[in-house]
Write a structure and sequence with these properties.
By secondary structure, the protein is of the alpha/beta class. It has a single domain, classed as Inosine-uridine Nucleoside N-ribohydrolase, Chain A (Alpha-Beta Complex), CATH 3.90.245.10. 35% of the residues lie in helices and 18% in strands. It has an 8-stranded mixed β-sheet with strand order 3-2-1-4-5-6-12-9, with helices on both faces. Strands 7-8 form a two-stranded antiparallel sheet. Helix 1 runs parallel beside helix 11, helix 1 crosses helix 12 and helix 4 crosses helix 6.
């Protein structure tokens, strides 16, 4: 079976950690490496969290390269002020994961991506699930490598609503200029945004009564989720915790799991109230050729089962 080769760009908080498990535990995905960025927390913290998760699941063979520490132009909401994922980014567990014994590779995220793309005999898929700074920096620094990018499947944006402003999604608004560059790059894009990711949730009862009791790894993940549950139950009024970042990978593995449509999408980098909005031309008012496939809905049951299966594989096969 030919695997889907990816480099995953993460700002590792709780849903990133679960997405990492899906990427590493699904037999159809070959993770060539993780690159890290600021986002849910500072890059120093998200890098350490990425290493912690790899150590937890016994995949210390996968390289990690540290990347962007700040946006390209201006900071919207410094990561140290965000506590959705806890102060440590992994839920402030009572028994936190130990400090990692492994370290990042001696390359920047952009250099790691460039070297990996250049050395590959086939195009590679990039999966950014935090701010788009590393990917945009790669596009600007190495335009000759664009043909080596099979596609970019990103978690971010929405057609209408936001979660960091009335109209902007958190990953995009943390570096709108980077997202603007990505959407203008001509690279094949899939946008897994809030339209679909809010619908891809694990219900609160399901999380406690089913998910948490499956194996040692789901038990550990459940212990991360206390602050995340509080956020979704009290602030978002959602029926469960959204698996935002994992949807990118599920969409790659099984395109039929997502309902999508092709639209022209750009990012507002000038507006007072709409800064960071992914402006999605749903009605083709601009008459421009679509540049992104936009996720609008997800088969929630199949999606969550895919996550459970991948975690079960990792739990059973820890090296």
């Amino acid at each position: 079976m030919e695997k889907i080769k990816i480099i995953m760009d993460v700002d590792t908080g709780i849903d990133d950690a679960i997405a990492m498990c899906l990427a590493l535990g699904n037999e159809k995905i070959d993770v060539l490496g993780f690159t890290t960025t600021f986002g849910n927390r500072r890059c120093e913290v998200t890098t350490k969290n990425t290493l912690k998760i790899l150590e937890l699941v016994g995949r210390t063979d996968v390289p990690v390269a540290a990347g962007a520490t700040r946006p390209m132009v201006k900071e919207y909401n410094p990561p140290e002020y965000s506590i959705v994922h806890g102060y440590d980014g992994l839920g402030d567990m009572e028994n936190p994961l130990p400090e990692p014994s492994i370290t990042p590779v001696d390359k920047s995220a952009v250099q790691f991506m460039a070297d990996t793309l250049r050395a590959s005999d086939e195009p590679i898929t990039l999966v950014p699930v935090g701010p788009m700074t590393n990917v945009a920096s790669l596009i600007l620094a190495h335009p000759e490598l664009l043909p080596k990018i099979k596609e970019v499947v990103l978690m971010g944006g929405s057609t209408m609503q936001g979660n960091a402003s009335p109209v902007a999604e958190a990953n995009i608004i943390q570096d709108p200029e980077a997202a603007y560059i990505l959407f203008r790059s001509g690279v094949k894009l899939r946008m897994a945004g809030l339209d679909a990711t809010w619908k891809g949730y694990i219900g609160f009862d399901e999380l406690e009564n089913d998910f948490a009791k499956q194996n040692w790894l789901t038990e550990t993940i459940y212990s991360m989720c206390g602050i995340y549950v509080e956020h979704y139950r009290e602030r978002m009024k959602n029926p469960g915790i959204a698996m935002h970042d994992s949807l990118t990978l599920a969409w790659l593995v099984n395109p039929d799991i997502v309902q999508c449509r092709d639209y022209y999408v750009t990012v507002d980098i000038n507006g007072r109230y709409t800064y960071g909005m992914t402006v999605t031309d749903v009605n083709n008012v601009l008459g421009k050729k679509p540049n992104a496939s936009v996720a609008l809905d997800v088969n929630r049951i199949e999606f969550i089962q895919m996550i459970k299966d991948a975690i079960a594989n990792l739990a059973a096969n820890k090296k």
